[in-house]
Design a protein that fits this description.
4 copies of one chain form a homotetramer.
Chain A: E1 2-6, E2 27-33, H1 40-50, E3 58-65, E4 69-76, H2 79-83, H3 88-91, E5 96-102, E6 117-121, E7 124-134, H4 137-146, H5 156-166, H6 172-180, E8 185-193, E9 197-201, E10 210-214, E11 217-221, H7 224-230, E12 233-237, E13 243-247, E14 250-254, H8 267-272, E15 278-279, E16 282-283, H9 284-298, E17 305-308, H10 314-324, E18 332-334, H11 352-357, E19 358-360, H12 362-365, E20 369-374, H13 381-392, E21 397-402, H14 424-427, H15 430-436, E22 441-444, H16 447-453, H17 469-472, H18 480-486
């Protein structure tokens, strides 16, 4: 067996605009098994391109050729740049492949943190791609190092590999499941071994993973939009706590964990998933429109136009406009050309940062009472710039609406959220926020409104249907690492009260 | 006087997706004079970023420092990559600068074709940025070469420089005007000399150019959206046939050409200008919405939803939806992550190309009668892929509407259009097109509808208010080079009948 | 503790001329402990530059800052390109550092094989640089993988790291020695931990390592020429089988292995070491001159000029010329500008390859009887090209002399030698070689002549003073991996008789 | 006719060690006409590689395909890097090509200054490569600009192109000669037009140019070593003031200038030419050895060893050693691995700069009286470092000898010399120099000794056989630009007395 790694890329620094008022998911994952000769990597490349919104910093693909050789390439930058070339078939041959696209993590943007990660086990190689975050990573890491494991990255995906490598089980799938038994948190995993593709989702199904078929080949991906781009047919979600093993014999489903109710992450609907994806059986676009409709119902206001913060606020704004009977207008134009933070000339002063990405459309805004719809409000800094730009363009009133509730608590399952002290709603009263954001009125969709918009009915407070701790403080799992930092107190289901919310 | 050129960039090949069913303008131009110490280049960088939609292949800035030294940098790629860095102030110092962003031209994507171009004249240096196309370039080029001029590029902008360099006039502005007297076609020029900024627009005002102020500094740009991003105030359009000279004395307006009525290019409204720009005093966004409204009036049809081809079709679709009372829906999702043409795996077959950029939103389209709105139809290849994708997503009827008339004739003023034989409407009857595009009905906005949407009233056929030859075949100027190819027959105002239109 | 890795380099492919008739050592190593604030890495860079002849493919430095943070950079290419920059002090801060320069190995030229390698142990980090080759690497590798170790490289240096990481000893030096106890072969190691620098040499001292002082700082390096360039004073050789530990307390010497007589590698004198280095107490330049003198004595011949194959043959040719009283002339000019193998135009036919590097100096050679001196003959391909070039330049006779004996057996201690079937002397009789090389006479220095030239007296056949198996077939250690391939027969001290020598 | 330019290279800055105590020639040129299909560029690449010592900063090749298309590539860096690739045949096709390799000039290291330069004339394209310097460049440049010429570079080669382009002659060879009539200084030119190759040498033959044949093809090159590497046969020198035109008809020789005696540049023998080249019919190696022999005769001294400053001092040191009967030893080892100026750690103090390139060989120097031979002494800074290094290595006496006379005056014909105030011998007495250089004795070869060494007999002071103004102050041509700076006084044959030589 051989393993060929090529990380040939110019390791140029990450140059995209650092926008610290934006949530980031760390990953999209994708895999195919049983593709026509040498096509697996190009199919995975299509899938990763469709998952590009889940991470733009780096991407990688590992392919398995002839059940014998593994080929890996990992690049900084976009999928199209890295894997759009016609020679991909030669560079990453084989009928099975797994891919990954990621945003930066705390570990820094080093190429060595880019996935898929590979290990050469006794039983043969394994390549693994991981979306999510382990809540007991530090705990596991310390134990592995004390046993002599050498980490090459700062990624929790490598911890999973070490657990697999050190498992005392005989077969690779058993080892894989053995390793899953030791990790906690949110995860969606796709792995390739010499003979099998394995997919796994955490016991609560926090992170998404779907299953499809492309002709005879099996496909796994974070979202259905990747299936569409690959030309594959959606079969079903991988279930919470399910491990699917695909090989010559077909698909085997294993449920190694104690049964629990699913609690997928609400933020997939709010922000992360692409609008044309189907998440947990519901169209993301339709859920977002419904969020807008419910927002219109929860806060009735007189206004002339409804304006989305593009692109993520568009569906909610459409729903709002339809429900409220107020015209929908593209009052803010988004530039899709990326740029660093340009130098701000002294004269060209105010709020330049935001104008590089969002430009107010004066002709639409002038003299108008505007309802401005964003998907969520994190720090509030972007919102303030937008509100000022909209007013400078002549809007007479600005009513800001968030299509999701106040974000009050940090996430530990793979969303790159700021510290709690940076979360605007966690540190200010509604009136303070309204004043700071310089709006005439401010509104957040209620938690029940959001639940209803997903079609799941109101929140079941005894057994919530979704992971929603950022809004409610109720964490769905233990937080071993965090608890250790906090002195060992169990935090599951509790509010994290590091910070006293103002007023 | 000194001239410092740094073209330090990795001259990597242009990797963006070649989309041969898209019109391209060759340029955006921008200049500032009288900026605070060393800020001119960063102000121009902001302006170019806002003009990025006019050309993404390459960009350049030339600055003038202390009325003495010229600094030039030219790069392949996006403005944000080339000029977003914090050291720009040092790299391109001075209080005056001129910039350019461009798409590829026939001359190939060589760095040496990138503007601004510079010449060191007897009277001192001049840097020039040019948007447009000369219709007598070959004629001038041949004459200049026979006189001993050495061309370093294949760009017609260099021809203008040679004309200036060889003028027998004493002063640089006189030389500039002397040179303008010898060129024909569409042009918007911004030039910097040691002491002056000069702006010029062709006698018919085919290409746009606007004037603004940023504090004490004067600004010129292709569109008002650049003024907004720079933080400048719009003063007025540079008029057709006007030369503006800005220096210590302020602004001087010169009209060196015989007076004619203006005939700006209609395609700025249809496709090129950014929706938040004001062109010829009219909001591009509002004109496009009005195009949609008139489209709804011209073709009344029963349908369930109105779906734009994003992003350019959005305003017209909004106008259509409002006029027709049919819901507007984002039935097609556009990916803004760029990519080469990915390899198409054999299995993942149909219409992949388009899906990399546009994805059908099944939840919206399924079971619906769809009105699909695009800004224009050129070759029809993209339209067909989109129609098929919309149908594959479950639409029961697809009614395709173009918010502009049939494109029948090529352009020679700076729009990179395919050969006439490639223009779908030039070679097929309406019914043929409908059948080829696999739509239930097909409609193009009438030429009068388009004129009305701009607010200019119906077309004055004796003296058309706009340049519109691509729709009508009536060219507003002589086409010296083309006429030479065609045997010398004058073509102004005539239809170019290279090709017999079918049926 | 933190570890910062930056491998930022353009991973461009290795472009230097692949010269397959040249021996290669795999490494040079160098370390400093106790340097002035943040100067350790720039001192190591000087040392690596002086060791560049030991490997030009890649290089790396790891520094320790404040006994807490490790910084690593690894690059493809030359030391001067990678570490010649003025910002090195900031990139790799600290008072201790270790460096490595290498040629390619069988594992391929991947950046991940470049040293120093780093591991984050329970006790803190350790960075290690290794010159040599383990003869039981495959054995150890298989065992480590079966225990769950994950290898990121194909380098045997990583195996040493894993052994250290997995040792059950408490302290890091104990672990280091524990690991040494499990490896066999030739090695010179320099390691940095948070508080100590460790140097180690294999039990026979096959690979060289010297100790020096630079002010208060301690220095370790493969050769004394590195000490000279760093400005350090030579203290002594690290002894065979010695481990030196340097820390706040000063230097501690440990001899963990059973005592044996030293057997350093003869090829350091023949080819690898720089002529201005002192190896085992003898000047390499003087030893080589003496080799030339003895060559003149062993084969007396009438000739007009003595011509070296530059640069490695120069000292022996000088010695030969002095002993024989024949003028020394630079009859072959060497180009030091590197190049790939250029395309060979059909017309410019003969022996081009060699002429890119070596050009005959016609004015010197014409009409002359030439003694041509090379340091050794491996495949013979370069020799043949040179002989032909010398004859084409007009030499009337060519007498080729090798300043070392016939190379008959492969090396397993870090010299990248071709397969035995490719070694000219292993497969041909003297007369066959003479005929193939088209020379008038051919001579190799005798093994005793070589021993005498080193000053060690004639070879002690019962206990040879040097490692010399390439000439004699007597391997100084077990060859576990090779024996496994050969069916388990012990090979130490035996000739490897894979191939029957002709005649 | 078409012209394809690809300057695709990463325009990375020149990183080689700036050694300001070294003379630099600006160029090597090379051309071939009539090569087998598409082999011209690879033949020229071989020639440029052999001329690499004449310039390492940048290189370029222009080829002519089918008498119709020109292809040009220009790169920063070495020939082997730029043109060593196997695809050269496709990149630069054709049967004729011209190449250029250069060091930096005052104009800066911009890619646009790299040659060959190309112009597209009425009669078709012309590519030109130029070695030398025009003494009336500023004069011509000013005149051309006043006539409207636009310069893209700061190179005097472009001035020649403009003169050709503007000539009123009908045929391209006539235009070329017309242009030559207007330039002054030293030049060797190789040009390719669609149908012809043209070579030209200035009226005094200051810069060298030789003619050869490679099968049926004609070859031109700066030195014979390029012919050797290309596999070509030396035919003859292009004569001073000769223009050779090569086309289908064969070679035509034209002598357009008034006849003068030749005065080739002495520095080709002293330093620039490669030792295996034949310059003006004499072997450079033999001339240098003779310089050494005469040096031994002019200054007899007792010493133990003769040590060259490698590589340029080697032949003179060999000649010295042979004449004086003192052993020749490589007492200084030169590193051929390039490097920037490394950071100098505070502790590793003295004379580090020189040690990166030259290392004293202690074993040879210790306790010895040393004659140190260099080819010339410019600023003296390198000499001082070497002397100190030799003493630090234990030499008891150091006698420094320059194999050429004192350099007293600047050059204006293509040698990049420092300002006169920086020339050690121009500003110090012999005793001052001896003291500053810390040597026991100092000697320079006499001007007659140098003339004799070339075989030309003693200097004919009424009609010197060589260009030797750097030693004598007698300039062989007018220096129009310099005279203008100096107030118009004619300087030919006069000493430039900008500076009063000390005592």
């Amino acid at each position: 067996m051989s393993h060929h790694i090529a990380d040939p890329v110019v390791h140029r620094e990450h140059w995209r605009e650092p926008d610290d008022d934006q949530l980031r998911l760390e990953c999209g994952v994708c895999g195919v098994w049983g593709a026509p000769e040498n096509e697996a990597s190009s199919i995975v490349a299509l899938g990763l391109h469709a998952l590009q919104h889940r991470g733009q910093e780096a991407c990688g693909i590992a392919s398995v050729h002839n059940s014998e050789s593994f080929f890996t390439e990992r690049h900084m930058g976009l999928v199209g740049e890295a894997f759009g070339n016609a020679d991909l078939t030669n560079r990453l041959p084989g009928c099975a492949a797994v891919g990954h696209t990621r945003y930066s993590t705390a570990g820094g943007s080093f190429l060595r943190n880019v996935q898929p990660m590979f290990a050469d086990l006794d039983q043969g190689g394994i390549a693994i791609a991981h979306n999510g975050n382990l809540t007991n990573f530090k705990h596991i890491h310390a134990q592995l190092v004390s046993e002599g494991a050498i980490f090459q990255s700062t990624s929790d995906s490598e911890a999973i590999l070490h657990l697999i490598a050190r498992s005392r089980k005989a077969k690779i799938v058993e080892r894989f499941i053995d390793a899953l038994g030791r990790i906690e948190g949110g995860f969606a995993l796709v792995a390739q071994t010499r003979f099998k593709m394995i997919g796994a989702r955490d016991p609560l199904g926090i992170r998404p993973l779907v299953l499809g078929k492309l002709g005879e080949a099996w496909v796994l991906a974070s979202e259905t939009c990747a299936l569409d781009t690959m030309g594959a047919t959606f079969i079903r979600d991988v279930e919470h706590g399910e491990v699917v093993v695909i090989d010559e014999e077909g698909l085997t489903s294993i449920k190694p964990f104690a049964a629990q109710a699913a609690r997928p992450c609400l933020f997939e609907y709010v922000y992360f998933a692409r609008p044309d994806s189907i998440v947990n059986g519901r169209s993301v676009y339709e859920v977002r429109k419904e969020m807008g409709r419910r927002l219109a119902q929860e806060f009735q206001i007189e206004a002339d136009i409804v304006v989305p913060v593009p692109d993520s606020g568009v569906p909610a704004a459409l729903g709002y406009a339809q429900a409220a009977g107020i015209p929908f207008e593209m009052g803010i134009i988004r530039s899709h050309y990326l740029g660093r933070t340009f130098i701000q000339p002294s004269q060209a002063s105010r709020q330049k940062g935001v104008r590089m990405k969002h430009s107010p459309n004066k002709a639409v805004l002038e003299g108008k009472r505007v309802v401005l719809i964003d998907d969520s409000i994190v720090r509030g800094t972007t919102s303030l710039k937008l509100v000022r730009a909209v007013r400078a363009a002549g809007a007479t009133e600005v009513h800001l609406r968030s299509a999701s509730p106040q974000i009050l608590y940090p996430d530990f399952y793979g969303i790159d959220m700021p510290e709690r002290s940076q979360l605007m709603a966690a540190t200010h009263s509604m009136e303070e926020m309204r004043a700071i954001l310089e709006v005439d009125s401010l509104g957040f969709l209620s938690i029940d409104g959001l639940y209803e918009a997903t079609g799941a009915g109101p929140r079941d407070n005894t057994a919530p249907q979704f992971t929603d701790h950022y809004f409610t403080g109720e964490y769905p799992t233990r937080l071993l690492d965090r608890e250790a930092e906090e002195g060992g107190r169990e935090m599951r289901g509790k509010k994290v009260s590091i910070l006293t919310v103002n007023a």
